[in-house]
Amino acid sequence: MILWQADFYRRPLQDATQQPLWELLLCTPDRTFEWVVWCPQSKANADWLTSQIQAAAGDRLPDRIQVFRPQSLGLLETACQPLGITVEPTRQTSALKQWLEERVNIYPTLPEFTQQPYQPFQLDRPPPMPLPEQLWGDRWRFASLPAPEIESGFRGRPIPILEMPESRLPVNLGIASTMKVPGIVIDGGRQAMRLARWLAQVHPVSIHSIPGAPDGLILEAGLIDRWVVATYDDSEVRTAAQLYEQRKQAAQGLHFLLVQPDDSGVTYSGFWLLQDF
């Protein structure tokens, strides 16, 4: 499968007519292939993108293009449709983001540079939304599992919704077998399956413990969405939250989310292996 990552958006540049310049970046995850082209804002449309993707690909179109920027997503989806290319919205475009950071140092050297402040992949994010009330479970808790039990305990089990990408398995991240991977467990009761299906639709990315008044668990999902999973002001829970974040940091950001009807350990509704990015 040929996989590309793409970004198409305004840069701190303008042409001779003072039109903002857009930049199209295309690359493979290992950056052995890179394609750069600028576009005046008046031509920044799906037809232009389609022609550029065809020019970049030659006779080997990619099967999938990953996109992290919401403003690029719709245009790229429209551009890729006639080419039969799948567009995948995801925050996990590390090669592309590294390249964007590098290009920040190039723009000021160009005559088209506008001197405008520029953050290469800063996105406007909405405030966290409360979890829909009809999805609330019976209870939740912080938990942890020895790294080897992540794969052996969940892969191959009849779990209706299971997301365990190979790239996030502890063994593939080089995480020691003695390390504990932290997570969040939600006993959903009768709502467990409904909650798991909803989570599958919003595409969980990570869960953070955020200090505040009160403290809260924030689910990062999709490209920019955020949801309040729970709030708490208990000192014991706060201590557990600190340990959860410490273990995440030690485990390269790896953590899990488990939704189950109850704590019997017999039936699971959904399991997600997540990682901070």
Number of strands: 14
Q: State the shape.
A: elongated
Distance between the termini: 24 Å
Radius of gyration over alpha carbons? 21 Å
Quote the average pLDDT.
Answer: 93
Class by alpha and beta content: alpha/beta
Sheet with the most strands: spatial strand order: 3-2-1-4-5
How much helicity do the residues have?
A: 25-40%
Largest sheet properties: 5 strands, mixed
Number of distinct helices? 7
Low-pLDDT ranges: none
- Share of residues in strands: 25-35%
What is the element string, with H for helices and E for strands? EEEHEHEHEEHEHEHEEEHEE
Question: What features would you describe in this structure?
Answer:
This protein is α/β, with parallel strands linked by helices and about 280 residues long. About 25% of the residues lie in helices and about 35% in strands. The protein contains seven helices and 14 strands. The protein has helices at about 45-55, 70-80, 95-105, 145-155, 170-175, 190-200, 235-250; strands at about 5-15, 20-25, 35-40, 65, 85-90, 130, 140-145, 160-165, 180-185, 205-210, 215-220, 225-230, 255-260, 270-275. The strands form three sheets. The protein has a five-stranded mixed β-sheet with strand order 3-2-1-4-5, covered by helices on one side. Strands 7-9-13-14-8 form a five-stranded mixed β-sheet. A four-stranded mixed β-sheet has the order 6-12-11-10. A hairpin with a 6-residue loop joins strand 2 and strand 3. The longest helix is centred in the C-terminal third of the chain and has 16 residues, at about 235-250. It is elongated, with a radius of gyration of 21 Å. The chain starts with a strand and ends with a strand.
